[in-house]
Design goal:
The complex is a heterodimer of chains A (about 475) and B (about 525).
Chain A lengths: L6 H19 L8 H19 L9 E3 L4 E3 L1 H24 L7 H20 L3 H19 L6 H32 L4 H11 L3 H18 L8 H7 L2 H26 L1 H4 L3 H19 L5 H21 L3 H28 L14 H4 L1 H15 L5 H16 L5 H29 L13 H19 L2 H10 L5
Antiparallel strand pairs in A: 1-2
Helix pairs in contact in A: 1-2, 1-4, 2-3, 3-4, 3-10, 3-14, 3-20, 4-5, 4-10, 5-6, 5-10, 6-8, 6-9, 7-10, 8-10, 9-13, 10-13, 10-14, 12-13, 12-18, 13-14, 13-17, 13-18, 14-16, 14-17, 14-19, 14-20, 16-18, 17-18, 17-19
Chain B lengths: L2 H18 L5 H25 L8 E9 L4 E7 L1 H20 L7 H20 L3 H22 L5 H30 L6 H10 L4 H18 L9 H7 L2 H11 L1 H14 L1 H27 L4 H22 L2 H32 L10 H4 L1 H15 L5 H16 L1 H27 L16 H19 L2 H14 L1 H4 L7 H5 L15 H9 L7
Antiparallel strand pairs in B: 1-2
Classes of the chains: A mainly alpha (about 475), B mainly alpha (about 525).
């Protein structure tokens, strides 16, 4: 077995463990700086991945652990994606460090362990590794969510995530057991061969539906979205940010692999199920976001809607649709992290992240105000930002399938309705920032150097993806060639 | 590089430069904005004069691949249809930058958004790629919303901002779905408009596909142009907007939907266009009558102008619905004329508001004594709005009527009455209320435009109205060949290549049919000679 195949995961694990070790000898005030070390290390691993790891050509993917682990274009795309997300989340964690009373180094290390889980998820080619990777992610997130032990809200979020997460795990294990019992295989390739004969078996289909339900919890799609608002609101900001982008993307890469690698024949008969999930998520997320006053809660509901948009690309059942999902996720990464960075910095003194606390932000810090505005515009899908081109690709993928099946037209109009609704609450955030009359505190907000850097990176990412979509789109198109 | 790239590059480039200018350098910020729009206007005038009306195809073209795998490109170029619109847009943008001295707070952001909006508008009219076309339009639309929200006026500002945002976004998204569906159904793998047009001429879409896409474009674009009954966003939006925004949106950006119908919907979906045009003809009466009727009852001058601009859009729709060379030429002429007129009116009303702090007609009066220049300009704008000969609006409206008469006699008769009587009533009543009668004590201190610099934007717009009004051939000679070349598939039912359309029995639509939509009348319309310029 080629150990180099696992280089990303091993390096990240080593970094996390090293951090815990160094922590033993560090004096308390220096611990905060450890986050920069973690971020730097993640950055170096990302650099290593970009420079030294070549994208495996089509059909020449590397396998490890008797084909349990695969390193193909799709896996590599998502590994780089997760590394970038973790890098920005770690910078955010340093900014947030003074609000964490104890165990700071553990917080950084846990972020890295969750990252390792996501890296494994990107490579899962077998239900065993899929389950192990998901558990690594979920269990670290239980701790990360309840890390502010002095805040009841954080503990409450942790318990809710634990209970509902355990439930989803139970669903998934039961589903995997049923599928294994009937097909006698856990590997995706083996299942693809066996599934043809089992296509009509109801128990087998039931098992698959349970597995999809387990993944549905991760990507927060209706009807498995119930945990989202409370957990998003209660968790520390960097955790919420990582949950919003990392956990969702991990769910999507696994969903893509299961649907199109393990059971492609059955998926081809399920477009209506996927459309239903997508449409319901878009409507539910957008409608529920309207009355929200808490910013993190609002972003939680909007995250449900975005899961629905992403499912549009999955429901299209085409390579163009899958490439659009990857593209949309890339834009979503910069947008979500920009929004959460602003929330983290601008609402430092305010407990509860109330929307009204953003009033007068344009005077307190024009940079943060502009960043939040751009993020909202990108969420809403306004050119020249990443969200616009992503939505364009998703709608195009759906409309390409529409002549064959009229239901896609209804889905398109549902998505349109969702986008128009979402404009209301995104625009409302912009309204509060720029022309709300109730600004009480007008003291300037200092923005530290690394955070400034992270913000510039997010803005550059949103603009680059919106203005020059060709590069990432080609990468995404190449990556999804790993899926037949 | 095409001069068009410079025309839209100046404002967008200046917007980036503005980012780097400290916010305390107020004269510099304003200077950059005015200089950039002036450069765009000068270049547009130069391009307009160099335009060769006799040449076929597009001129001043430039194409750069954007996303190869999807067939997206940055493609700009002009023909007779949009050369006048680009000119009008650039001149109005310069005027809008000039009148913005009334903005006193957060100037940097204001001029930044104004420049982005200008660049987006000019790009939308110059684009020859479906994606670019939509992209630039959205780029111009979003600054509109923010400008109304931040620098708008009146108590209903927030409500108006959200209404215009949601309404126009809905329209734009419907049009986007229509455009994507058009791309997908055409199957040519390109968003390039000339290529798509050539492809669809050779392989027309099935009637079913056309019948699905056309209403999306018609109502999507229709919402953007305040087609009755989707016009309710316009009057509150314009009365809340700062004057530069209202000038640019009502004058130029709103014409995007009409331009889209003429450039995309009619030539690419000709069969569906013939089915839907009778319906559009009756809807345009809604604009003319309902818009005019409500305008008569308005107490606020800006709302009155807003409703009158809704009413004026009726003429353009009527010209498009006529589906013949004369009608569509007239429609383009009205678009350009109304652009200058709406900009002039909103600029002047902004001046009044800045002086008095109100636009309620009942509280004003006798202002002509204090404001000889502004008052006279407002009077001329009102006359232009009524369709007085000598102004470009008259030339456009009469051409539209000539064209529409061929297709819809009853609608044309009704529209003439609506235009002449109702328009004159509300405009002249507003003039009486604002400029004549006793001067209330409170307004004894209002001052006229003090020097040439303040008068310049209004003079420029008035001069344009008069030049194109007295000599409309400047435009029609360019528009006509372009319309007969580009819109031909929709225009001529008797083109030999498409006999099936003519032979088809009366279409099975349930909408009310005007008496003259019969194939015989359409054939007469197509055969109508070219000598009926206004």
């Amino acid at each position: 077995m080629n150990t180099l195949l696992l280089s990303h995961e091993l390096l990240v694990l080593a970094l996390g463990l090293g951090l815990l070790l160094v922590d033993l000898w560090l004096p308390l005030p220096a611990k905060r700086k450890l986050g920069y070390v973690a971020a730097l290390g993640t950055g170096l691993i990302l650099l290593y991945s970009l420079v030294c790891v070549r994208v495996p050509p089509e059909g020449a993917a590397g396998y490890a652990f008797s084909q349990m682990y695969v390193l193909d274009g799709l896996a590599l795309f998502f590994k780089r994606f997760f590394l970038l997300a973790a890098l920005l989340v770690l910078l955010l964690s340093v900014e947030f460090a003074d609000r964490i009373t104890s165990g700071l180094s553990e917080y950084y290390a846990l972020v890295l362990f969750a990252l390792a889980g996501m890296l494994f998820a990107a490579s899962a080619n077998n239900f065993t590794l899929l389950f192990a990777a998901l558990e690594l992610i979920t269990i670290t997130f239980y701790i990360l969510t309840s890390f502010q032990r002095h805040r009841v809200a954080s503990l409450e979020a942790g318990v809710k995530y634990l209970v509902i997460g355990a439930l989803s795990t139970a669903f998934m294990v039961f589903g995997i057991a049923l599928v294994y019992g009937l097909s006698h295989t856990l590997s995706f390739d083996g299942l693809a061969r066996a599934a043809g004969a089992l296509g009509g078996n109801r128990v087998f289909l039931f098992g698959l539906v349970l597995i999809l339900a387990g993944l549905g919890f991760k990507i927060a799609v209706v009807p498995f979205q119930i945990w989202v608002p409370d957990v998003y609101q209660g968790a520390p900001v960097p955790t919420t940010a990582f949950l919003a982008i990392g956990s969702k993307a991990a769910g999507f890469v696994l969903l893509l692999r299961v649907l199109f690698l393990a059971v492609p024949d059955i998926t081809a008969h399920w477009p209506h199920l996927l459309m239903l999930l997508s449409g319901a998520s878009i409507l539910y997320g957008n409608l529920c976001a309207i009355p929200q006053r808490n910013l993190k809660r609002l972003l939680g509901y909007s995250g449900i809607a975005h899961a629905g948009y992403l499912l549009l690309g999955v429901a299209a059942l085409s390579a163009a649709g899958r490439a659009a999902v990857l593209y949309y996720l890339s834009g979503y990464l910069f947008t979500v992290l920009a929004a959460f960075t602003v929330i983290c910095v601008a609402l430092r003194q305010v407990d509860g992240e109330d929307l009204g606390a953003l009033a007068g932000l344009h005077r307190r810090s024009p940079l943060l105000a502009a960043t939040m505005t751009l993020a909202m515009a990108s969420f809403a899908g306004i050119p020249p930002l990443a969200g616009f081109f992503g939505k364009f690709l998703l709608l195009k993928a759906v409309l390409e399938q529409a002549p064959a099946c009229a239901a896609y037209y209804y889905l398109t109009f549902l998505a349109l309705a969702g986008i128009v609704i979402s404009l209301y609450y995104y625009f409302n955030v912009v309204r509060v920032i720029y022309w709300s009359a109730n600004a009480t505190d007008l003291s300037p907000i200092p923005v530290s150097g690394p955070i400034r850097l992270a913000i510039y990176a997010c803005i550059a990412g949103m603009l680059y993806l919106g203005l020059f979509p060709g590069g990432i789109l080609n990468l995404a198109t190449e990556a999804v060639k790993a899926l037949p | 590089m095409s001069p068009l790239t410079y025309i839209l590059g100046w404002p967008l480039g200046a917007a980036i430069v503005l980012l780097l200018v400290p916010r305390t350098f107020r004269p510099v910020i304003r200077g950059i904005a005015i200089l950039a729009t002036l450069m765009a206007a000068v270049l547009a005038v130069k391009m307009f004069l160099r335009f060769d009306a006799a040449a076929a195809g597009y001129q001043f073209e430039q194409q750069v691949a954007w996303v190869r795998s999807l067939g997206l490109s940055y493609h700009v170029g002009v023909d007779g249809i949009n050369v006048g619109l680009v000119l009008m847009g650039a001149l109005v943008a310069f005027a809008a930058a000039c009148v913005s001295w009334e903005i006193r707070e957060r100037e940097k952001e204001f001029y930044l958004l104004l420049l982005v909006m200008t660049g987006g508008i000019l790009g939308a009219f110059a684009a020859l790629d479906l994606f670019c076309f939509y992209f630039f339009h959205e780029l111009a639309l979003v600054p509109t919303f923010i400008m109304i929200g931040v620098w708008g006026r009146g108590e209903q500002k927030d409500y108006a901002t959200f209404q215009i945002t949601l309404y126009l976004s809905l329209g734009a998204l419907l049009a986007l779905v229509g455009l994507i569906a058009l791309y997908v159904q055409a199957g040519a793998g390109t968003f390039d408009i000339p290529q798509l047009a050539a492809h669809l001429r050779a392989h027309p879409l099935s009637p079913g596909a056309q019948g699905f896409i056309f209403p999306l474009l018609l109502f999507g674009f229709g919402i953007l142009v305040s087609l009755w009954p989707f016009h309710t966003w316009a009057p509150p939006g314009y009365s809340a907007a700062p004057s530069a925004t209202a000038m640019l949106h009502a004058g130029v950006l709103k014409k995007f939907g009409l331009y889209g119908l003429i450039r995309i919907a009619l030539p690419l979906l000709p069969d569906a266009a013939r089915d839907w045009m009778p319906i559009l003809a009756w809807l345009c009466l809604g604009n003319l009558f309902y818009g005019g009727w409500v305008a008569m009852r308005q107490k606020d001058f800006n709302r009155l102008v807003g409703y009158s601009s809704v009413a004026h859009m009726g003429f353009v729709f009527l010209g498009i619905a006529a589906l013949n060379l004369v009608g569509i030429t007239g429609a383009v002429l009205v678009m350009i004329a109304h652009g200058f007129l709406a900009a002039l009116t909103f600029g002047l009303s902004g001046y009044l508001y800045q002086q008095t702090g109100t636009l309620e007609i009942a509280r004003l009066g006798g202002l002509l004594r204090r404001l000889p220049f502004i008052g006279a300009a407002l009077m001329m704008a009102a006359f232009a709005g009524c369709g007085l000969p000598g102004f470009a609006n008259f030339a456009g409206e009469i051409t539209v009527f000539f064209g529409a008469w061929q297709s819809y006699r009853l609608v044309t008769i009704l529209a003439c009455w609506g235009a002449l009587v109702i328009g004159a009533v509300y405009m002249l009543r507003a003039i009486r209320g604002l400029l004549h009668g006793p001067l209330p004590e409170a307004w004894a201190g209002v001052a006229d435009a003090p020097h040439l610099w303040r008068k310049a934007p209004f003079l420029l717009l008035l001069a344009s109205l008069l030049i194109f009004g007295c000599y409309p051939r400047l435009l029609t000679d360019k528009i006509k060949p372009a319309v007969s070349e580009k819109v031909a598939p929709a225009l001529a039912p008797e083109i030999p290549a498409r006999p099936g359309i003519l032979a088809r029995p009366a279409p099975d639509r349930d909408a009310p049919q005007p008496p003259d939509a019969s194939p015989a009348a359409l054939r007469r319309a197509g055969a109508f000679p070219r000598n009926s310029r206004g």
